[in-house]
Protein backbone atom coordinates (compact mmCIF):
# COMPACT_ATOMS: atom_id res chain seq x y z
CA UNK A 1 0.00 0.00 0.00
CA UNK A 2 2.76 2.45 1.00
CA UNK A 3 4.70 1.56 -2.12
CA UNK A 4 1.74 2.33 -4.37
CA UNK A 5 1.16 5.71 -2.73
CA UNK A 6 4.84 6.65 -2.96
CA UNK A 7 4.90 5.61 -6.64
CA UNK A 8 1.82 7.72 -7.32
CA UNK A 9 3.36 10.74 -5.56
CA UNK A 10 6.65 10.26 -7.44
CA UNK A 11 4.86 10.09 -10.81
CA UNK A 12 2.79 13.15 -9.96
CA UNK A 13 5.92 15.13 -9.07
CA UNK A 14 7.63 14.05 -12.29
CA UNK A 15 4.62 15.14 -14.32
CA UNK A 16 4.49 18.47 -12.48
CA UNK A 17 8.22 19.15 -12.96
CA UNK A 18 8.18 18.10 -16.61
CA UNK A 19 5.34 20.53 -17.32
CA UNK A 20 7.91 23.31 -17.80
CA UNK A 21 9.41 21.43 -20.75
CA UNK A 22 6.30 22.23 -22.77
CA UNK A 23 6.95 26.00 -22.58
CA UNK A 24 7.08 27.72 -25.95
CA UNK A 25 10.45 28.82 -27.26
CA UNK A 26 10.60 31.56 -29.86
CA UNK A 27 12.72 30.59 -32.84
CA UNK A 28 13.79 33.80 -34.52
CA UNK A 29 15.71 34.07 -37.77
CA UNK A 30 17.88 37.10 -38.37
CA UNK A 31 19.65 38.13 -41.54
CA UNK A 32 22.75 39.39 -39.72
CA UNK A 33 24.33 39.68 -36.31
CA UNK A 34 23.73 43.44 -36.34
CA UNK A 35 20.00 42.87 -36.87
CA UNK A 36 19.94 40.38 -33.99
CA UNK A 37 21.85 42.81 -31.75
CA UNK A 38 19.43 45.64 -32.61
CA UNK A 39 16.46 43.35 -31.90
CA UNK A 40 17.81 42.45 -28.45
CA UNK A 41 18.58 46.10 -27.65
CA UNK A 42 15.08 47.20 -28.66
CA UNK A 43 13.33 44.45 -26.70
CA UNK A 44 15.35 45.47 -23.64
CA UNK A 45 14.53 49.18 -24.08
CA UNK A 46 10.77 48.86 -24.65
CA UNK A 47 8.49 48.45 -21.65
CA UNK A 48 5.56 46.03 -21.58
CA UNK A 49 2.28 47.99 -21.31
CA UNK A 50 0.66 45.19 -19.30
CA UNK A 51 3.48 44.27 -16.91
CA UNK A 52 4.58 47.91 -16.52
CA UNK A 53 7.97 47.22 -14.96
CA UNK A 54 9.22 44.52 -17.31
CA UNK A 55 10.70 45.05 -20.69
CA UNK A 56 9.15 43.16 -23.60
CA UNK A 57 12.09 40.73 -23.70
CA UNK A 58 11.34 39.47 -20.18
CA UNK A 59 7.55 39.62 -20.29
CA UNK A 60 5.35 36.66 -21.16
CA UNK A 61 2.25 38.81 -21.67
CA UNK A 62 0.44 38.49 -24.98
CA UNK A 63 0.96 42.18 -25.80
CA UNK A 64 4.73 41.79 -25.22
CA UNK A 65 4.79 38.81 -27.58
CA UNK A 66 3.00 40.88 -30.21
CA UNK A 67 5.41 43.77 -29.67
CA UNK A 68 8.45 41.50 -30.07
CA UNK A 69 6.99 40.13 -33.30
CA UNK A 70 6.35 43.67 -34.56
CA UNK A 71 9.91 44.74 -33.68
CA UNK A 72 11.26 41.81 -35.69
CA UNK A 73 8.91 42.57 -38.59
CA UNK A 74 9.92 46.23 -38.67
CA UNK A 75 13.61 45.33 -38.48
CA UNK A 76 13.21 42.97 -41.41
CA UNK A 77 11.52 45.78 -43.34
CA UNK A 78 14.70 47.82 -42.89
CA UNK A 79 13.39 50.30 -40.30
CA UNK A 80 15.90 52.00 -38.02
CA UNK A 81 15.92 51.76 -34.26
CA UNK A 82 14.48 55.29 -33.93
CA UNK A 83 11.68 54.55 -36.41
CA UNK A 84 10.72 51.40 -34.49
CA UNK A 85 10.65 53.24 -31.14
CA UNK A 86 8.58 56.02 -32.74
CA UNK A 87 6.13 53.41 -34.09
CA UNK A 88 5.77 51.81 -30.64
CA UNK A 89 5.29 55.21 -28.96
CA UNK A 90 2.65 56.15 -31.53
CA UNK A 91 0.84 52.88 -30.93
CA UNK A 92 1.20 52.42 -27.15
CA UNK A 93 2.08 55.90 -25.87
CA UNK A 94 5.17 57.31 -24.18
CA UNK A 95 4.85 54.71 -21.42
CA UNK A 96 6.58 52.04 -23.55
CA UNK A 97 9.91 53.85 -23.23
CA UNK A 98 11.78 53.86 -19.95
CA UNK A 99 12.81 57.48 -20.61
CA UNK A 100 9.65 59.34 -21.66
CA UNK A 101 10.03 62.90 -22.97
CA UNK A 102 9.20 65.90 -20.80
CA UNK A 103 5.75 67.13 -21.77
CA UNK A 104 3.11 69.31 -20.14
CA UNK A 105 1.54 66.17 -18.70
CA UNK A 106 4.74 64.95 -17.08
CA UNK A 107 5.49 68.40 -15.68
CA UNK A 108 2.03 68.44 -14.09
CA UNK A 109 2.60 64.96 -12.65
CA UNK A 110 5.83 66.11 -11.01
CA UNK A 111 4.67 69.53 -9.81
CA UNK A 112 1.09 68.76 -8.69
CA UNK A 113 2.09 67.04 -5.41
CA UNK A 114 4.43 69.92 -4.56
CA UNK A 115 1.72 72.49 -5.32
CA UNK A 116 -0.82 70.61 -3.19
CA UNK A 117 1.67 70.45 -0.32
CA UNK A 118 2.32 74.19 -0.51
CA UNK A 119 -1.42 74.96 -0.60
CA UNK A 120 -1.93 72.77 2.46
CA UNK A 121 0.86 74.51 4.39
CA UNK A 122 -0.48 77.95 3.47
CA UNK A 123 -4.01 77.01 4.57
CA UNK A 124 -2.66 75.60 7.83
CA UNK A 125 -0.71 78.80 8.55
CA UNK A 126 -3.73 80.96 7.70
CA UNK A 127 -5.94 78.87 9.99
CA UNK A 128 -3.43 79.04 12.82
CA UNK A 129 -3.15 82.81 12.41
CA UNK A 130 -6.95 83.17 12.56
CA UNK A 131 -7.11 81.18 15.81
CA UNK A 132 -4.42 83.16 17.64
CA UNK A 133 -5.70 86.06 19.74
CA UNK A 134 -4.42 89.47 18.75
CA UNK A 135 -4.12 92.73 20.63
CA UNK A 136 -7.16 94.04 18.78
CA UNK A 137 -9.42 91.28 20.03
CA UNK A 138 -8.39 91.77 23.66
CA UNK A 139 -8.64 95.55 23.39
CA UNK A 140 -12.13 95.38 21.94
CA UNK A 141 -13.75 94.15 25.17
CA UNK A 142 -16.56 96.34 26.37
CA UNK A 143 -16.57 97.73 29.87
CA UNK A 144 -19.22 95.19 30.86
CA UNK A 145 -17.12 92.30 29.50
CA UNK A 146 -14.03 93.57 31.30
CA UNK A 147 -15.95 93.72 34.58
CA UNK A 148 -17.22 90.16 34.06
CA UNK A 149 -13.70 88.98 33.23
CA UNK A 150 -12.31 90.62 36.36
CA UNK A 151 -15.01 88.93 38.52
CA UNK A 152 -14.16 85.52 37.04
CA UNK A 153 -10.46 86.02 37.66
CA UNK A 154 -11.05 87.03 41.29
CA UNK A 155 -13.39 84.07 41.78
CA UNK A 156 -10.70 81.76 40.40
CA UNK A 157 -8.12 83.15 42.87
CA UNK A 158 -10.45 82.53 45.84
CA UNK A 159 -10.86 78.87 45.04
Q: What is the number of E strands?
A: 0
Silhouette: elongated
Quickly give the structural class. Answer: mainly alpha
Q: What's the number of helices?
A: 7
How big a fraction of the residues is strand? under 5%
Q: Under the CATH scheme, which class of the domain at 28-116? A: Mainly Alpha
CATH architecture descriptor name of the domain at 28-116: Orthogonal Bundle
Q: Low-confidence parts, pLDDT < 50 over ≥5 residues?
A: none
Average pLDDT, rounded to a whole number, is 81
**Amount of helix:** 55-70%
Radius of gyration based on Cα positions:
35 Å
By CATH, the topology of the domain at 28-116 is Helicase, Ruva Protein, domain 3
State the separation between the terminal residues, measured CA to CA: 91 Å
Largest sheet: none
Report on the structure:
With 159 residues, the protein is mainly alpha-helical. The protein has a domain of 89 residues: Helicase, Ruva Protein, domain 3 (Orthogonal Bundle). Helices cover 67% and strands 0% of the residues. It has seven helices and no strands. α2 packs antiparallel against α3. The chain starts with a helix and ends with a helix. Possible subunit of a heme lyase. One of its GO terms (molecular function) is metal ion binding. This is Cytochrome c-type biogenesis protein.
Topology summary:
Blueprint: H1 2-18, H2 33-45, H3 62-76, H4 81-92, H5 104-131, H6 135-139, H7 143-158
Short description:
With 159 residues, the protein is mainly alpha-helical. Helix content is 67%, strand content 0%.
Amino acid sequence: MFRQISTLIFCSLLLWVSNTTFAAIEALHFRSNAEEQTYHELTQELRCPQCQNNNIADSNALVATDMRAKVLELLQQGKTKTEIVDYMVARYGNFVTYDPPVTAGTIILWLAPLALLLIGVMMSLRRRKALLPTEQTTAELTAEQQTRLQQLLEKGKEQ
